[in-house]
TrEMBL record:
Belongs to the DHNA family. In the N-terminal section; belongs to the DHNA family. Pfam families: FolB, HPPK. Transmembrane segments: none annotated. SMART domains: FolB. The keyword Methyltransferase does not apply. Catalyzes the conversion of 7,8-dihydroneopterin to 6-hydroxymethyl-7,8-dihydropterin. GO terms for biological process: folic acid biosynthetic process; tetrahydrofolate biosynthetic process. Coiled coil: none annotated. This is Bifunctional folate synthesis protein. InterPro entries: Dihydroneopterin_aldolase, FolB_dom, GTP-CH-I_C/QueF, Hppk, Hppk_sf. It comes from Actinobaculum massiliense ACS-171-V-Col2. Its EC number is 4.1.2.25, 2.7.6.3.
Length: 301
């Protein structure tokens, strides 16, 4: 299985030869006797968290893959091994795998010729790697070094060059930085929100935004440090994720007025994780002030 996408490297876990006696098949005689069905399953994962803490709960284990394969193969009879492979794949993706490859073998298939094996292999991407479906995306922009207004306007134009359709651009607001205890003082931030529609895979969009950050001067060396440019994906329509590279919705979006208020300016009826953003704003103390220079982009351009 391919273990690199969009410049990100991933890991994989697999199990082969999960064997179950069952009676799947198109023909009536196939439903009357049990024959071997064998599954090979490989899941694309990121093993770093599990490995660093030695915690099986933070990965998709080979035991999980075996359980899913056995559960499907031993369930009610179906006509096709393609159906079995698809059901196994969906179970594995539901566990958080980024992608999965499943092969189902039927070595005693009713074929009149002499043969060694009959098998179907399918490959499926999970939501973070799947492209082709147009989704609505909310992006937060921020900067507090250099000329933040100029940088954010430049970043918006760079985003427009991507295969996206920008649907909204907020005015700029100024906010005080969030600092860790003992962290040195920083200049105020200039923030904005941009919304867009795109068929890019979420991780592909993330990779492209990170490229823009780097070209805009971003250096990742300090958590909550001052920066020339910060581009955060706050939410992607229909996608939830606990993956550490791209948690969706953004884990702190619901407590950030510098995200919620600019977002409400362009999408006042929007929801975040099932909550109206207007109600989230009402529950937070005012913390933003307008910046005199507006964003230069116009929605939909």
């Amino acid at each position: 299985m391919e273990t690199s996408r969009f410049g990100f490297s991933f890991d994989s876990v697999k199990i082969t030869g999960v064997r179950v006696l069952a009676s799947h098949g198109v023909f009536a005689e196939e439903r009357e006797r049990c024959v071997p069905f064998i599954a090979d399953v490989e899941a694309l994962i990121d093993a770093r968290c599990a490995a660093s803490g030695d915690e099986v709960a933070k990965t998709v284990s080979y035991a999980d893959l075996a359980d899913d394969a056995e559960s499907v193969l031993s369930s009610g009879a179906v006509n096709l091994i393609e159906t079995l492979a698809e059901r196994i794949a969906q179970k594995v993706l539901a566990r958080g795998a980024l992608a999965v490859e499943v092969t189902v073998h039927k070595p005693e298939a009713p074929v009149r010729q002499e043969f060694a094996d009959a098998a179907v292999t399918i490959r499926r991407d999970g939501p973070l790697l799947a492209s082709g479906t147009i989704r609505h995306v909310v992006i937060g922009l921020g900067a507090n070094l250099g000329d933040p207004v100029q940088t954010l306007n430049w970043a918006m134009e760079e985003i427009r060059r991507l295969p996206v359709h920008v649907t909204g651009v907020s005015q700029f607001v100024q906010t005080t930085p969030v600092l860790a205890p003992g962290q040195a003082a920083q200049p105020n931030y200039v923030n904005a929100v941009l919304t867009l529609d795109t068929a890019l895979a979420p991780l592909e969009l993330l990779a492209k935004l990170q490229e823009i950050e780097v070209r805009g001067g971003r250096v990742r060396h300090e958590h909550w440090g001052a920066r020339y440019l910060d581009l955060d994906i706050e939410t992607i329509e229909g996608v939830r994720s606990d993956y550490e590279r791209l948690t969706l919705p953004h884990p702190r979006a619901d407590e950030r007025l510098f995200v919620l208020e600019p977002w409400a300016e362009i999408e006042p009826e929007a929801y975040l994780a099932g909550e109206p953003i207007s109600e989230l704003i009402d529950g937070l103390a005012p913390a933003v002030a307008p910046v005199t220079a507006p964003a230069t982009g116009e929605a939909g351009a």
